[in-house]
Amino acid sequence: MSTTEARATIGLTGLATMGRNLARNIARNGHTIAVHNRTTARTTALLEEYGDEGDFVGCESLEELVAAIERPRAIVVMVKAGEATDAVVDELVPLLDADDIVVDAGNAHFADTLRRQEALAAHGLHFVGMGVSGGEEGALDGPSIMVGGSDHAYERLQPVVESIAALVDGTPCCAHVGPDGAGHFVKMVHNGIEYADMQLIAESYDLLRSVLGLAPAEVADVFEEWNGGDLESFLIEMTADVLRHVDHESGRPFVDVVVDAAEQKGTGRWTVQDALELGVPITGIAEATFARSLSGHTEQREAARAVFATEPVTLDVDRDTFVDQVRAALYASKVVAYAQGFDHIAAGAEAHDWDIDLGEVATIWRGGCIIRAQFLDRIREAYADEPDLTTLLTTAYFADAITDGVDAWREVVATAVRAGVPTPTFSSSLAYFDGLRREHLPAALIQALRDNFGAHTYARVDRDGTFHTRWAEDGRPEEQQDD
Ligand SMILES: NC(=O)C1=CN([C@@H]2O[C@H](COP(=O)(O)OP(=O)(O)OC[C@H]3O[C@@H](n4cnc5c(N)ncnc54)[C@H](OP(=O)(O)O)[C@@H]3O)[C@@H](O)[C@H]2O)C=CC1
Ligand SMILES: O=C(CO)[C@H](O)[C@H](O)COP(=O)(O)O
Questions:
Q1: The 6-phosphogluconate dehydrogenase C-terminal domain covers which part of the protein (predicted)?
Q2: pTM score > 0.90 for this model?
Q3: ipTM beyond cut 0.95
Q4: Per residue, what are the HEC states of the chain?
């Protein structure tokens, strides 16, 4: 397939859904690309079907791939995350020369990226963890790209990655977000937000269908209308299309022929696990992840249905009013999910000593990625005005949106509770908002209980210091001395 002449600007191995389209995107943008896949049939198919789209060099082995690329080489690995990526990287390393760059464009866990970066550095190689979002279509037409790696490696990659990324207002949705694991960390949180966004959309759909009795196509009309306003986004637009889709075989609404058990590949779960470690309350993302888990517990669901099934509750709700309330609740909950996601990135950056520019992250998420939305421009503006923002919720634009929508938000959650429609992400987002804005939290009681049963100490509202109450003796507080 290939010649031995090293004429490709870049190489790519892994030509499944994402890799094939990313390779075509690179070729379409005028870069010579060497392509390889473990199973050669995929390479052959790419060349046969799309070989005329640009300058491809087909390779049957990794040796051929390496030989086809100009030095210092840059090789993109776009295979299954985890063991497959390790297998490919391990096979590549002995074939490479000092200063070559291996780019993992899969959905790797950032801790794996840190480990691989250290291992390759010992061989004088650069390892780049590159988050790519946009799915099949985005990979071809312009994804959002989050690069983590050294400045040196980014300089080598920049002409290619910036040329293939989505463009918004002339700005490529691509950035060097930080060193080593920073790119995959940002991509992980992107996917966590994607989980929350999708769950909020799903809860809105469920409410419109269950409380108002709308058919899927009618809910599609509502989403289409919402897409004309503040909620405008790729996922809202796609929801309208999916809800309107009729299954070719059964003639039923497509959404009714799909089994209601949501799967996941793991990025949402990693986001929640990492946030727990860092102590960041990403409650919307966590509830969205658990909602997927719950949906998959089919045996428990069947058992519960057998015991607790009831007739649907009919509520006297005005259609237009409720639709508007759900829109406001969706918007407010979405603001919470994004605020929590950006808090998580800030905490990750601090913990790993990455200088991540949150405004830049919002900028490159405006296009190409699954969570692309008009609303990200507002987040970009908020960070431009105040880079060290304490929380996105209090910036003027979002504060106004929440203040205007909070009554509707409460009404929607209350209606959902009365109707028995589960809305974990709406409810937890509202609880998060109330938790933040409340003057006093019952955490004081938790501290008191902890001190009572375990002498865990507490701080007082009336003076500085750390205290323990002599519960079993005279009930008086005694100040604790620092160790
Ligand atoms: N699908 C999506 O929407 C998105 C996916 N991603 C990430 O991009 C990466 C690629 O995703 P996708 O295109 O969906 O493909 P898959 O995740 O389904 O991976 C299939 C590819 O991995 C290769 N592969 C699997 N195991 C090995 C191995 N042991 N050695 C060598 N190659 C192996 C396959 O080769 P073979 O053909 O020989 O089996 C094939 O090229 C993944 O990390 C994914 O998480 C990122 C963003 C979006
Ligand atoms: O990375 C992506 C988009 O940005 C993928 O679509 C993501 O892998 C989907 O995740 P899951 O299968 O867990 O829903």
A1: 183-472
A2: yes
A3: yes
A4: CCCCCCCECEEEECCCHHHHHHHHHHHHCCCCEEEECCCHHHHHHHHHHHHHHCCEEEECCHHHHHHCECCCCEEEECCCCCHHHHHHHHHHHHHCCCCCEEEECCCCCHHHHHHHHHHHHCCCCEEEEEEEECHHHHHHHCCEEEEECCHHHHHHHHHHHHHHCCEECCEECEEEEECCCHHHHHHHHHHHHHHHHHHHHHHHHHHHHHCCCCCHHHHHHHHHHHCCCCCCEHHHHHHHHHHHCECCCCCCEHHHCCCCCCCCCCHHHHHHHHHHHHCCCCHHHHHHHHHHHHHHCHHHHHHHHHHHCCCCCCCCCCHHHHHHHHHHHHHHHHHHHHHHHHHHHHHHHHHHCCCCCHHHHHHHCCCCCCCCECHHHHHHHHHHHCCCCCCHHHCHHHHHHHHHHHHHHHHHHHHHHHHCCCCHHHHHHHHHHHHHHCCCCCHHHHHHHHHHHHCCCECCCCCCCEEEECCCCCCCEEEECCC
